[in-house]
Amino acid sequence: MIKKALFSSFVLMAMTAAAQKTTITIDVNKPLHAVSPTLFGIFLEDINLSVDGGLYPELVRNRSFEDADSLCFWQFRSLQGEAKVRKADLSNAKNPAVPLNARNRQFLNVDVQGDFTLSNDGYWGMNVEKGEKYDFSIALRTPNSYQGNMKAKIVVGDNVLAETDISDVTGHWKYTKATLIPTEASTNAQLVIEGNGKGEVCMDMISLIPQKRWGKSGVRKDLGEALDNLHPTFLRFPGGCWVEGEVISQRYQWKNTIGNIDSRIPLWNLWGYTATHGIGYHEYLQLAEDLGAEPLFCINAGVSHKETIPSDEIDQWIQDALDAIEYANGPVTSVWGAARARNGHPAPFNLKYIEVGNENFGSVYFKNFELIANAIKTRFPEMQIISNDWSGSHPSTPSHAMIDEHYYNTPDWFILNANKYDNRKRGGEKVFIGEYAVTSQCGKGNLRGAIGEAAFMTGLERNSDVVAMAAYAPLFCNVEHQRWPINLINYDNHRWYGLPSYYVQQMFAENQGTVTLPVSVTGSPLVDIPSSSGGIGLGTWNNTAEFKDLKVTTPKGKVLYQNNFSSGIDDWEMQGDGEWNVSNGVLSQNSLAAEVTAFVGKDNWREYVVTLKARKLSGENGFQIYFHHQKGENNRTRWDIGGYSNSISQMQTIMDSHSINYSIEPGRWYNIRLEVSPLTVKGYIDGKLVQQASLTDINRKTVCASAQKDEKSGDIIVKVVNTGKKDLTTKVLLNGIGKVADLAEATVLSSGSSLDENSLDAPTKVVPHKEQVRINGNHLVHKFPANSVTVFRISKK
Questions:
Q1: What are phi and psi of 267, to 5 degrees?
Q2: CA 452 to chain centre
Q3: Alpha helices, DSSP H only, in 590-694?
């Protein structure tokens, strides 16, 4: 294979040197700035069952019966008995509902007169391996004298793979523990509690966890290894929107997530399930340590999706932040440092980064941020504080904060923004790109999406004196509970695969130098501006709204589509958890869910005028008018009127977003006119031009590159992304290189089609491969495949 690659390299140089026009020039002896040592990391939010049902290896779902008042995710069978979830209640003197502890408020009460079985399928079946050890535990008590026997079994249908007796049920809560060793492997096993007896028995904290886990954090072994292979320099946790919660009471509260596992208070997760906190604040810190990554803790800033706290409550938020830092870093003689030591980690975790808020903005956030950040800096001056930048707005004080920017868009957007930070003012705030990913026009996560991200990442490397940290998001997804369209690592109960984007992250993280080198690209073909076309759409975000008198015409007035909403919307494509209704000529959206959309029209519509009337009824924001929407996609080319808590109007295009201060009145009908062409968009409200956006100044090269030097090894590291549709033969010129090895190692990510994807059944369809490339003095000539990422390591002789 290597010989073949070398031969091809010789032939390539001989046949194409004259015809080759594109040149990448690197000035090896003119180093620029240091590479940020924390440039590429990971962001772990409990979304898509990322933690419970994923990284946390507990096999039992709803082990503590806290998910609901009913028997959720359990099946009870008995001809002579019943099982009920009971809440703590000591008022009934004859039969008090005594909880396991003061923080674990629900349990299962089983009242039988004979045989019964209680079974749990886990997360779409339990995965057990033959001969491996599984820790089983159950907490039991009887309010009266239960007489009978019980067993715990791992079963597949009628086949028992492992079992143990359960005995010693007393009038007080007591744990029974055992090790179960399956005699066969299965991916569809159940845990069954089986008994025959008379009386009542109370059950809680029924658990089954494999002993084979990864790291001191004890996470699911294969997923822990998948994280480790990304070589992250930091771990941002635990969110994300989960930090905020839909309402303040649903925010992440770290003090409820530490200590004994049965005393952690579960939390309803806005992504659609109850979080057990099996991985709590302590375990997140431990996971970062296991990975050799800097922990980055994101805290609530007194702001949720729908609420903000009164100003007189901010002291609690400040104290929680200070206590969190003390827990991570304080001496064992401190209150929270002692708690950390009791939980098994006397040494400090050395937390250096804390982010105040997630995707927050506005006057309340700015004020709360200033108060929290100043309190942290006063007591812990060494902490690096991160603020949110949302829609180009972030707190101005304190000025020492890093700012967090988030980007989700199309492959073309990321390619066109590969030079986004080239001209950013130096000496200001450092940038943390806390979340970014291609999330639309990329199938289920294809190679083209990874190419867009890689192009963007070369820009982050070139500008790592400005961009200090960046993390792809989201990280994990259980394929049975997908709540976000594109996710880096996808899994079921026994397998996983990474998107092509996973391997881009890995390639960049594995190949980091210490100083940035000047790099220029000449003679590259230019990016084809995407042929922007598509239908239209209407949307809301955490609010309700109404629409009427919709018409789409050509610029000359020919009607393309018209709907007076008198006969339904069967021809519309709905996305999100909306509640759409048509009545009396009005289309209503009555759900307060985020990102609710409805689309109509044809993919080949290019130039048109949209007119309608719209009004906000209730909730957080205004309404959105989408344009150039491709069917089945989730692209956000839209006009967001009254967005970001009804504070701005934002025109989002393939290239960028353009915002102005703008709010709308609830209940008032607005006349909307949107003039759309492939390269320009103009938005009118009540006859007045409010916003416009243009893409006519786009002039981007298809080749994106970055270069670094590892001062310790002397290696020169060059990353090249060919975003074009054709293979491109290119000269890489290394000015001032000196003597180097005759061969350079190249790691290449490419595939037969830019639409190729990985999956559970084909996890390695798109993965990197190695090549050897001949160095000819101070240059090399290489054919870069279409839609490819290539990393060269050039070593000293």
A1: -135, 130
A2: 17
A3: 643-646
Q: What is the CATH number of domain 2-32+700-794?
A: 2.60.40.1180
pLDDT tens-place string over residues 410-424: 899 999 999 999 989
Please say if the pLDDT value at position 267 is more than 60.
Answer: yes
**CA–CA dist 79, 86 (Å, integer):** 21
> Above 80 in pLDDT, residue 8?
no
pLDDT tens readout for residues 154-180: 999 999 999 999 988 999 999 999 999
DSSP string, 745-759: EEEEE--S-TT-B--
Q: Annotate 518-538 with three-state secondary structure.
A: CEEEECCCECCCCCCCCEEEE
* C-beta separation of 154 from 234 below 8 A: no
Among 60, 43, 42, residue whose Cα is nearest residue 493? 60
**Residue 629 near residue 635, CB atoms below 8 Å:** yes
Quick: pLDDT tens for 50-74. 999 999 999 999 999 999 999 999 9
Nearest-5° angle of CA 632, CA 635, CA 638? 120
Q: DSSP letter string over 348-377? A: -----EEEE-SS--SHHHHHHHHHHHHHHH
- C-beta of residue 560 within 8 angstroms of C-beta of residue 605: yes
390 Cβ contact partners less than 8 Å away, ≥ 6 residues apart = 359, 360, 361, 406, 644
Q: What is the spatial distance between Cα 533 and Cα 414, in angstroms, rounded to a whole number?
A: 19
* DSSP state, residue 158: T
Quick one: 229 exposed, middle or buried, by C-beta within 10 A (0-12, 13-18, 19+)? middle
Provide CB contacts within 8 A for 618, sequence distance 6+.
543, 544, 592, 666
In this structure, the dihedral spanned by the alpha carbons of residues 503, 505, 506 and 510, taken in order and rounded to 10 degrees, is: 140
Give me the pLDDT at residue 15, please: 40
∠ CA 613-619-625, nearest 5°, is 35
Q: What DSSP state is assigned to residue 330?
A: -
Distance CA 61, CA 64 (A): 9
Q: Which helix (H) or strand (E) holds 18?
A: none
**CA dist., res. 564 & res. 571, Å (int):** 14
Chain Cα centroid distance, residue 409: 14
Active site residues: 359
For the stretch 541-552, pLDDT in tens is 989 999 999 999
Calculate the alpha carbon distances from 491 to 43, 272, 279, 431, 494 in Å: 17, 18, 18, 32, 7
Q: Tell me the pLDDT band of 4, cut-offs 50, 70 and 90.
A: very low
Residues in the chain: 797
Q: Look at residue 390 and tell me whether its pLDDT is greater than 90.
A: no
Choosing among 2.40.50.870, 2.60.120.260, 3.40.640.10, 3.30.420.40, the CATH entry for 74-210 is 2.60.120.260
What letter would DSSP give residue 230? T
Q: Grade residue 671 by pLDDT with cuts at 50, 70 and 90.
A: very high
pLDDT tens-digit map of 338-367: 999 999 999 999 999 999 999 998 889 999
- CATH tag for 40-53+213-522 (out of 3.20.20.80, 3.30.390.10, 2.40.160.20, 3.30.830.10): 3.20.20.80
User: What order do you get walking across the sheet with 769-774 strand by strand?
Assistant: 515-516, 703-709, 716-722, 788-794, 743-749, 769-774
Domain boundaries, the chain: 2-32+700-794, 40-53+213-522, 74-210, 535-694
Weakest-pLDDT range from 94-103, 191-200, 244-253, 557-566: 94-103
DSSP string, 545-576: EEEEEEEEE-TT--EEEEE-SSS--TTPEEES
The tokens for 715 are 């290696």
Q: Decide the pairing of beta strands 40-43 and 467-472.
A: parallel
DSSP state of 247: S
The residue-averaged pLDDT of 563-580 equals 91
